[in-house]
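Review box. Two proteins, two foldings.
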Amino acid sequence: MWEHFHHEADIGIRGRGATLESAFEQGAVGLTAVITNPDSVKPGQQIRIRCSAPDLELLFADWLNALIFEMSSRRMLFSRFQVEIQGNELIAVAWGEPVDRARHQPAVEVKGATYTALSVGPVDGGRSWQAQAVVDV
């Protein structure tokens, strides 16, 4: 599950899942949903992403910023994600396709993930994980 949350002029994204990795994956779907409907993005091409950070919060921000960089430099959108986290390192695959302005109708350009409201941790009494951040649009 992913959702947006209200935050002044920017947009908050929150990913939730049964595992830490699934929370990061759902956060990435929420990032795509800021731009377009993720269901409209065909997962035809894959790219690999690696990043590392000293803690989980910074790792989530780095993950989102790596996706934003890939979207911008490759002119792609992503709809499917597979994340593996080992210690302070994230290894992921993102599937997507080149932007089709007529079909995707991108709403905004995401400039970057911020440290505002940045948090990662267990929720629901430890039964699931949540990762959230505010992105600058």
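Next protein.
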Amino acid sequence: MSEKTPLILVPGLLCTDELWRDQLQALSDIADMTVAEHHLHETFEEIADHILKTAPETFALAGLSMGGYVALEIVLRAPERVTHLALMDTRADADSPSDKKKRQDFINLVQRGSAFKGVTESLLPILIHPSRFKDEVLTERIYKMAQDIGKEGFIRQEMAIMQRKDRTAELAQIECPTLVLSGNEDALIPASHQEKMAEAIPDAEFHLIAECGHLPTMERPFETNTIMRDWLSW
């Protein structure tokens, strides 16, 4: 039996290892997986340092949304250690002024003592496909992840995101086999934006998942798992 591929999975904003639950089960025969935590750090530099210190010498790396920002920080800092890269429903550019204002508004809402679950309820329409809004099993999993991250973790994550660097010009430096995956109806980061990101990476393939929003690992696990399994064999 061949040796399993070390694979680090990096969750998105307000997400825990539950984001990767189906991948942790479905890919366990070919990958030795670890889910990174990043809600305890305030900058992407700190997050990347922590992950690299505890990671195997070489590893595959997958990040979704905020996790993709972390993955870019890691692969650009230590390209010799990343054998495969997966960027899911994410982007390479920095926040615009309006993006930063929206994030600060959410932070202010939380700091004023509003119910923390309310932040997730307001985000839900841009996180999942409209057909899943009434899927109570899925939505409760999303709410639970947010509660587990908590108010202070959420604020740290948002502060880190607002400070992140624009990596667009550096995408051409990525040399490892790269999967760029998007839900076809991602309302937060349009699929067209992600396709352009894939075009800028020399050895990248772009995959689109139908009837899917911003969280393909949870919304469409079978399709996501199939694509990831193939990616790990590139």
